Amino acid sequence: MKGKKIKSETRGKFFLRLFPVLKYVNIPNLITTLGLAFGVSAIYFVFAQNLKLVITCLFIASFMDLLDGFFAGKLNKQTYFGKNADMLSDFFICCVIPALMSLFFLGNGIHIIISLGFYIVCGLWRLANFGISSEKQLFFIGLPVPGAMLLVILSIWAITQYGIPDWISTFVFILTGLFMLSSIKMKKYGICQKTLWALWLIFLPVLILL
User: Fold this and answer.
1) pLDDT in tens, 37-78
2) How many alpha carbons fall within 13 Å on the CB side of residue 118?
3) CA 47/CA 163 separation, integer angstroms
4) Gap between the Cα atoms of 112 and 130, Å rounded
5) Which domains, from first to last, does the chain contain?
6) pTM for the complete prediction?
């Protein structure tokens, strides 16, 4: 038994030397990766023009984003690698995919493109600012990008389903972008974050049933 254990440890060290990034494999980082996989699935459904499945995938990806932070704190696995992986995943899921959704489902009007560019830049700056902040903070400064994504998705859904003028999306993109860069403080797992998740949980069943 002891010999098998030594061989197993030797193999483990060999793989770590060959692929050193594997040392960051843990539950929070695996959850982040799973969320990213659902984000990639959302892109597939964007090209398939299936708005319901796009939004469903993004909901699951957002839930994974909530879980990875929760487990990182509970398991004391908060690392710079995990934080950076989470931010890169958030930028892709919460900024790039909503922009792609807008172009596919709302069109490529100049007002939409300009406001989308503004939204993406604000998301990038918001995440970069979060990246240089202290590792353990009790508050979000500015609207977190998953919350901004939810507001954008709601506007896209309303416009495509109920014939609301598409200039509303321009207003939403700019407003959420400004909120992301603002000095507004939101307590982690506080009333604002819970309200955003309540919106998700109300909206998703309606989406599925319609």
Assistant:
1) 999 999 999 999 999 999 999 989 988 888 888 888 788 888
2) 19
3) 22
4) 27
5) 2-209 (1.20.120.1760)
6) 0.85
The answer to whether residues 143 and 196 touch, using CB atoms and an 8 Å cutoff, is: no
Q: Helices marked H in the chain — which ranges?
A: 2-18, 27-47, 51-74, 80-90, 97-105, 110-131, 145-162, 167-181, 191-209
Report DSSP state, residue 141. Answer: E
Average pLDDT over residues 150-171: 88
75-99 residue pLDDT tens: 888 888 888 999 999 999 999 999 9
CA distance 153 to 172: 10
The one-letter amino acid code at 207 reads: L
* Residue 64 tokens, joined: 């994974």
Alpha-carbon separation of residue 51 from 55, 68, 70, 98, 188 (angstroms): 6, 26, 29, 11, 30
Structure tokens at 188: 């982690």
Query: Residues 6 or more apart from 27 whose CB is under 8 A from it?
Result: 71, 75, 77
